Amino acid sequence: MKSLSDWAALVGSLLVIGLAIFQVLLAAGQPLGHVAFGGKFSVLPRRLRIASGLSALMFILALYFILARAGHLGDIRNAAPIRIGMWVFVGVFLLSALANAASSSRWERRCMAPLALVLTTCCIVVALHG
Q1: CB 41 within 8 A of CB 29
Q2: So what's the pLDDT on residue 1?
Q3: Mean residue pLDDT across the chain
Q4: How many whole angstroms separate alpha carbon 65 and alpha carbon 61?
Q5: Distance (Å, rounded) from C-alpha 124 to C-alpha 80?
Q6: What is the distance between the alpha carbons of residues 110 and 8, in angstroms, rounded to a whole number?
Q7: Cα–Cα distance between 79 and 98 in angstroms, integer?
Q8: Is this prediction's pTM over 0.90?
Q9: How many angstroms separate the CA atoms of 49 and 87, rounded?
Q10: pLDDT tens, 46-100?
Q11: Pick from 39, 7, 1, 2: nearest CA to 118
Q12: Which pairs from 21-29 meet CB under 8 Å and 24+ separation?
């Protein structure tokens, strides 16, 4: 049976991959803006599309840290940059959950905030038990 940390790494990895794909779609101009950035635009303006592209890169970086801390990328799980980076992502995803919960967008409050909270929880488990 897999450990709690293994399951948290799996769920967290799937979430960051899904969120990275979502951000790439936003950056490419797909009409999904009602679920992001306050829900004010169907298709994001250029500056927010750039922000989505950067967010996608951040999610890919988070994937690296989750997999590394969970021990799936060799013997670097206990390296200081990996341990510290995991806690940085805990903070980033917690702030994201709070921002989404306070959003004027119903989609962000009902969908993105809970996803960000699950992702935060997964990252906490991986950070503590990786």
Answers
A1: no
A2: 52
A3: 96
A4: 6
A5: 16
A6: 22
A7: 29
A8: yes
A9: 27
A10: 999 999 999 999 999 999 999 999 999 999 999 999 999 999 999 999 999 999 9
A11: 7
A12: 21/56, 23/52, 23/53, 23/55, 23/56, 23/59, 24/52, 24/53, 24/56, 26/52, 27/52, 27/53, 27/56
Q: Which residue has the tokens 């905030």?
A: 113
**H or E element: which one contains 64?**
helix 46-69
DSSP letters spanning 4-30: HHHHHHHHHHHHHHHHHHHHHHHHTT-
CB environment 50-70: b (16+ within 10 A), e (fewer): ebbeebbebbeebbebbbbbb
Query: What does the DSSP assignment read for 97-114?
Result: HHHHHT-S-HHIIIIIHH
Task: Show the DSSP H helices in 70-103 as ranges.
Answer: 80-101
- Per the listing, tokens 């921002």 go with 99
